[in-house]
Design brief:
single chain, alpha/beta, FAD/NAD(P)-binding domain, 2 domains, 5-stranded parallel sheet, 8 helices, elongated, binds NADP nicotinamide-adenine-dinucleotide phosphate
Length: 330
């Protein structure tokens, strides 16, 4: 397997956190590579218009924003490695190793910006209409559903919060939950139950999303799990709020993860993990804010923390392999 040792920092993940970390590091003359994973650009690449990222008064398409972030980092020398999911890491020895399906990267510092993935229902029609009426983020997309009938799927705090938020825009929000009891905390349930714009349908799942990319979502096929009856339900938007999964599986056993799998940072106001030289930022750490702008901000923090650590440890002086040098082992 090819062994790549020419970078001082390996950045795992290419969403706003990873791209911003790459921008700051490359502007500081630190050689870094961004390992993009299987969804280059991260979660923003499955949304359409982004209207809440500062600096774009007319809004910007999610994929375009990520392309610009990447170009900005590349301008200062950051390298990107496309479609290389990380399979294994060794953070227990220094320099650190990050193995993808194609190469073994070795570097003195790593920034983990691997993000989180919204859980999906797993329907082909859901996938086909992502960004065209199917969304996983009310804060991002709610604005586009003014005076529409919206369905939110889920029975947890996220579903209650998303549904309550969406009532600012929608004419009606229907929460569809697969069971009769909700998982959400009492206070969040009550907030939704007391909201006159929110209705509930229990013991029901979404079987199919009906619509087109041109005209968006029109209807949902709902299945009552008690009677097995399938009915058509008019809705112009489907928000799936059944939880997120942080993309942290390769780090288990090395970085401290909480019960849900998010990376736990041991020090306030620092992105350093429990391993000196490994930093973490973005949605792999944050399950509260989960915004592109907060992820980008924490990517900046990780790059600054990383740069200071490299300088403090005098690693920038010692890690001086000529650019392009690669050692091959089989
Ligand atoms: P969650 O608590 O795991 O709830 C997920 C919900 O989605 C459950 O009701 C689950 O149904 C349902 N679900 C899962 N897979 C499904 C599928 N394939 N089809 C249909 N329904 C499915 O996730 P969450 O709501 O995102 O919350 C995650 C954590 O963040 C929780 O600890 C929560 O308290 C916290 N959070 C807090 C706040 C807040 O306090 N403001 C806001 C959001 C989230 P079942 O119940 O049948 O399993």
């Amino acid at each position: 397997m090819e062994r790549v040792t020419e970078y001082q920092v390996i950045i795992i993940g290419s969403g706003p956190a990873g791209c911003t970390a790459a921008l700051y590091l490359s502007r500081a003359n630190i050689q870094c590579i961004v390992l993009e994973g299987m969804q280059p650009g991260g979660q923003l690449t499955i949304t359409t218009d982004v209207e809440n990222y500062p600096g774009f008064p007319e809004g910007i398409l999610g994929p375009k924003l990520m392309e610009l972030m990447r170009l900005q980092a590349e301008r200062f020398g950051a390298k990107f490695s496309a479609l290389e999911p990380v399979e294994r890491v060794n953070f227990l020895e220094h320099p650190f190793e990050v193995q993808t399906d194609q190469r073994m990267y070795v570097a003195p510092a790593v920034i983990v910006a691997s993000g989180a993935s919204a859980k999906q229902l797993g329907l082909p029609s859901e996938q086909a209409l992502q960004g065209f009426g199917v969304s996983y983020c009310a804060t991002c997309d709610g604005f586009f559903f003014k005076q529409k009938n919206i369905v939110v799927v889920g029975g947890g705090d996220s579903a209650m919060e998303e549904a309550t938020f969406l009532t600012k825009f929608a004419s009606k929000v229907t929460i569809i939950h697969r069971r009769e009891e909700m998982r959400a905390s009492k206070i969040m349930q009550e907030r939704a139950l007391n909201n006159s714009k929110i209705e509930f349908i229990f013991n029901t799942t979404v079987d199919e999303v009906i619509g087109t990319k041109e005209n968006g979502v029109k209807q949902l096929k709902l299945r009552n799990l008690k009677t097995n009856e399938v009915t058509d339900f008019d809705a112009q938007g489907l928000f799936v709020a059944i939880g997120h999964t942080p993309n942290t599986q390769p780090f288990a056993g090395q970085l401290i993860l909480d019960q849900a799998g998010y990376i736990t940072l041991p020090h306030a106001h620092s992105t350093v993990t429990n391993i000196q030289g490994v930093f973490a930022c973005g949605d792999a750490v944050d399950h509260i804010y989960r915004q592109a702008v907060t992820a980008a901000g924490s990517g900046c923090q990780a790059a600054l923390d990383c740069e200071r650590w490299l300088t403090h440890e005098r690693i920038t002086e010692r890690w001086d392999l000529p650019k392009g040098e690669e050692e091959r082992v089989d």
